[in-house]
Amino acid sequence: EKEKTLAIIKPDGLLGNYTDDIKRTVLEYGFRIFKEKTVQFDEATVKRFYAEHSSKSFFSSLTKYMTSGPVLVMVLEKDNAIADWRALMGPTDARKAKITHPHSVRAMCGLDTQKNCVHGSDSTKSAEREISFFFRELSADVITEHD
Ligand code: CMP
């Protein structure tokens, strides 16, 4: 079985109509979109999702941003999916991505360190947690869901 990772297209990605470009890039790089759904985060759910960042200075602005509109959550599958999706996203700071990784997803659609358009699991452990968070125990409102 191939490795799976969790990817999120954040509110600015959906609002800016980058979904099709991001999906095309993902498929070009050999990922399969195993599952996907559109979700509107509520505050409690996004705080649980980003619990590891709860002590950070940017936590409240992060939760505000992530509840500002729907997000598209995808389970991506390929060999080495976790590291490959992180490489394809590019650096957290989209301004830096535009300079150092011009072909990355964040260079294409991100704005800055917070509004960076996409999320990806950073390890095997977080991929497992994040995939089950959305596809087994989700309490946020699910707008659409399909395999
Ligand atoms: P993500 O990969 O989803 O993980 C945590 C998120 O917090 C990150 O992307 C950004 O959206 C946000 N973030 C990380 N660092 C900062 C920062 N220094 N200032 C504001 N937001 C940040």
UniProtKB/TrEMBL annotation:
Tagged with keyword Nucleotide-binding: yes
Catalytic reactions of this protein: a 2'-deoxyribonucleoside 5'-diphosphate + ATP = a 2'-deoxyribonucleoside 5'-triphosphate + ADP; a ribonucleoside 5'-diphosphate + ATP = a ribonucleoside 5'-triphosphate + ADP
Domain Nucleoside diphosphate kinase-like: 2-142
MF annotations from Gene Ontology: ATP binding; nucleoside diphosphate kinase activity
Keyword entries, A-Z: ATP-binding, Kinase, Nucleotide-binding, Signal, Transferase
Family recorded in the similarity comment: Belongs to the NDK family.
Official protein name in the record: Nucleoside diphosphate kinase-like domain-containing protein
Source organism of the structure: Lupinus luteus (European yellow lupine)
Residues included from the entire protein: 30 to 176 of 178
